[in-house]
Model the fold of this input.
Amino acid sequence: MSRIHTHYDNLKVARNAPPEVIQAAYRALSLKHHPDHNPGDPEAERIMALINAAYEVLSDPVKRADHDAWIRRREAEEAKLTAANAAAQTSAQSTETTAQASARSASQTWTRPEPPGGPAGAQASDPADAHGAGSSFGGAAGTASGMRANAASRGKRKGVFAHVRRNWLYYLAAAALVWRLGPWSAPKDFSPPQPSQPERPTAKVSRRPASKHARTPDASDVAAGLAAAAANASAEDAQTAGSHAAGRASSVNRCRVVLDNRHGPAALVARLVRLDGSVATREFTVPARGSMTVRDVPPGAYEVRYRNPATGETRKTEPFTLREAQGDDGQLHSDVLTLTTYDVPGGNMRTAPMGEGEF
Done:
């Protein structure tokens, strides 16, 4: 019986693994296959999408129960197919045995007749009579051999046809299962069914510092970042904004914002807006089923606004703060912030609708 590929296989965990093991496996695989750790490798993006989908299902008790029920149904179908094949093979062997027995019975019906008077009488008979008897016996033996062959062939055909008439329903069921579960009916690159995406997803903020020494801000820094937004518009920020407008990369503007739309079916028009207005708005387009990275972003408080041109829907994220800090290694480290346009487990940032004039 072929093995069924499941979300447990994608995360490399057992089917009875507790939530803690599933979460640990997801984190380990994410660190290994994340596209940021494998630049330029399209296979890493495909593997990461499978890992995210598997964790989304297995981390939700309801979705995991549905997935387990799907696995049990597939295994039951495989077991039925194996049983049907075994029954067909056993029936074929039984038919062959019956045909062989019929052939032996037919061959035993025709036996060589004894000459008159037994073997001694045959030896005492006239040579001419013996020659005539031998010729007659030879003709009878040839006829008997042909009849034995015809009887064996008829018996074998009769046994096969009788077996097929008795068990035609089993053969029909086995053929239907083979057609349904055969390799020609399965997709070339099989993966378990993916759950449907919500129409209005939440966003998940993922902060990754440039190195282990960098300080990682979180959602609690937003209020402080908004309060200190005016103070951030210092001479250093003005110099940074001027360097970006002139197309020169500044050494302090190394923060990045990634808008992940890999599960989105439509392209988005987006803007990165600084809340104190000291830096020009950055406008960009996020492709469908793709992502866009905004580089060389000055530190400060921001929000992302985006519009779906197909539907006209406009939304914005919660405010967030980008920071740069001096690490223990003496180097300047900058924030890398990832926002998703689709629902993910453990999302900690929400999006809100906007009016037409706000975008």
Summary: The chain has ten helices and twelve strands.
